[in-house]
Amino acid sequence: MTDIVAIAGSVFVLSGALFTLFGALGVWRLPDAYTRMHSASKAGALGAIMIMVGVLFATAGAAWPGILLAIAVLLVTAPMAAHAISRAGYMAGVKPVVGPLGDAMEGSDKRAMDSEE
Question: Which of 16, 34, 29, 27 is nearest to 74 (CA)?
Answer without folding.
Answer: 16
